[in-house]
Specification:
Radius of gyration: 21 Å
Number of strands: 0
Number of helices: 6
Structural class: mainly alpha
Number of domains: 1
Largest sheet: none
Oligomer: single chain
Helix content: over 70%
Shape: globular
Order of helices and strands: HHHHHH
Strand content: under 5%
């Protein structure tokens, strides 16, 4: 299909870009962790734009495929409405996103405990319990101070996530470079 030049090293190219992206993610993550309120608002704006675009596409595809599909129109209106609410009332958007995060982490904790109990006494069940307990703690942190805690927690967790994603990319890029040198 695609032909690479004979001297082209795919691992080297991916490794180089992974390291660059990793450094950028780590910097963004540090900024987000240091300024969590700004990171929370940036996250809300990003999510709102994604929802707005998704709502417009849902409306377009409903219009093109089945104009009488009320569920498709409802989905489009809800997505666009929530996105506009989040864009024009970012503080409310942060609170909404914080509530959604807390629901996610409660569900993740429940799933983790379920997996742990179904795999007990096999090896590895403890990591599922550990993951479930961490998710439960994060969910409780969101709920205890909601909606005000969302202002800091969203930015802090997004910052941490970006930092560790960047660290993983940086290490992965180094790993790919090492693989490239072995071959």
């Amino acid at each position: 299909m695609w032909q690479y030049p004979k001297d082209f090293d795919l691992f080297d190219q991916i490794g180089k870009y992974a390291k660059t992206a990793g450094v950028i993610f780590m910097i963004l993550g540090l900024i987000g962790a240091l300024y969590p309120v700004y990171a929370s608002f940036a996250t809300v704006v990003f999510v709102a734009w994604l929802m707005l675009i998704a709502g417009m596409f849902a409306g377009y595809f409903t219009y093109m495929t089945d104009r009488s599909d009320w569920a498709g129109w409802l989905k489009s209106v809800i997505l666009i409405g929530v996105a506009l609410y989040m864009l024009f009332s970012p503080l409310g958007g942060v609170a909404t996103l914080g509530l959604l995060f807390s629901i996610y982490f409660f569900m993740d904790a429940f799933a983790g405990f379920t997996i742990a109990s179904s795999t007990y006494p096999n090896k590895g069940w403890g990591i599922w319990v550990f993951n479930a307990v961490l998710s439960l703690i994060i969910a409780i942190l969101f709920v205890i101070g909601w909606p005000f805690s969302s202002l800091y927690l969203i930015g802090l967790f997004v910052g941490f996530s970006l930092f560790f994603d960047g660290l993983a990319l940086l290490m992965g890029g180094k790993f790919l470079k090492d693989i490239s040198n072995v071959e």
